[in-house]
Specification:
Blueprint (H helix, E strand, L loop, with lengths): L3 H8 L6 H8 L3 H7 L3 H15 L11
Length: about 60
């Protein structure tokens, strides 16, 4: 999900819908849910990938 990070960063978590993400990525909504059961899981994955890409060691991210 290469473009999802940009959408989430630009619009923010709450103003970004799954539809916006899947349209930007060019994938079906079902494909999104196959990999990420929730938008929250996508955000955790994107934050972890961002940190890893910048040499930061993240043990666990959680959102309440």
């Amino acid at each position: 999900m290469g473009h999802s990070r940009g959408v989430l960063w630009k619009k923010g978590f709450f103003d970004t819908s799954i539809i916006k993400i899947t349209l930007k990525e060019g994938v079906a909504k079902g494909t999104f849910y196959y990999y990420f059961p929730t938008k929250k899981q996508l955000m955790i994955s994107e934050c972890s990938a961002y940190c890893f890409g910048h040499g930061l060691n993240v043990v666990q991210l959680t959102f309440n």
